Amino acid sequence: MAFVLYGIYMIVKSLIFYRVNSKNIKIGIFKTYTYNEVKSIELHSSVPSKFMFFTIYEKGLTIHLKNNKKIYLKEAYYTNFWKLRLHLDNTFGNKQIKISKPVTNSTIAITNKTTSIPFYITLVKVIILIALTSSIILLLDLFATNYLDPGYFIFSTGTFLFLLLFTTQMGYIESSKNYIIIKNLINPFVKKIIPTNDITHTTKETVGGGRNKRTFIIIHTVYHKKFKVTIDFISQKREKNIVKQFKKLAIPYKDYT
Fold it and tell me: What is the rounded end-to-end Cα distance, in angstroms, of the chain?
């Protein structure tokens, strides 16, 4: 029972939200700190976290207060954590960093292209399209006749969703003199355009362990946002091509795997 209660406590604790505005920093529901209480901020630090009876360290930021206390904010599970870093950087670093205006892909002349898309990716696209089409037809038939076994619909939909989730972050990189374009291997309409002036450095990192282990190329920007590209299922030739583009654009690259 004690372990169950402790588990519930840890889950609730992990759901604490962070919020910053022009006047203060709010952590959870009850804790609020004004900027007058803050001595300094480490925008990137190793944050201690309790797991059962052990202390582990995660990525995050540390706020040092004038009373010598420290506030640790964990980055994990917060997709917009970069916005918090950006605000605090502009507040205490006085850098006044701004996000570049969005650019349409049609205005960019790509000079560094990647290797050709492998055949199995085309096969995955076909399977996804068949699964989606089958799901729609089976759903309409199920509503119209109420005769079809729902298992067929569940299988088709499950296949579609699994492949979609599995391939969401599978991508590759192309570039021009002033931009890096991240393209999705499955959906050609999904593109992320990053001005090279916004990029501070790039890294190759491994996240998780065991069966959940994944390897990413991560593009770090001046406004603290990170763009991740999964490289678990791409060829070494394609990976080398990506690294070659970084070097050609004089963007620092570090392999942490």
Answer: 40
- Quote the tokens at residue 50: 């309790």
Contacts of 234 (CB under 8 A, 6+ apart): 170, 172, 185
Which residues, in sequence order, are bridge partners of residue 255?
204
Residue 13 has pLDDT above 70, yes or no: no
C-alpha 55/C-alpha 49 separation (Å) is 6
**Distance, CA of 85 to CA of 219 (rounded, Å):** 16
pLDDT tens per residue across span 169-178: 677 888 888 8
Domain boundaries, the chain: 2-93, 100-257
Number of Cα atoms under 13 Å in the Cβ half of residue 212: 3
Beta pairing partners, 60: 45, 74
User: What's the confidence (pLDDT) of residue 2?
Assistant: 62
For the entire predicted model, the pTM comes to: 0.74
Q: What percent of the chain has pLDDT over 90?
A: 12
- Which of 113, 100, 95, 112 is closest to 250 using CA atoms? 112
Q: Which of 114, 236, 253 is nearest to 181 (CA)?
A: 114
> Rounded CA gap, 96 and 11, in Å?
36
Please say whether the beta carbons of 54 and 28 come within 8 A.
no
Please give the CATH number for the structural domain made up of 100-257.
2.30.29.30
Handedness of CA 171, 172, 173, 174 (dihedral sign): negative
Residue with tokens 């709010």: 26
Which residue has tokens 């996804």? 128
pLDDT tens-digit series, residues 133-169: 888 888 787 777 766 677 777 888 888 888 877 777 6
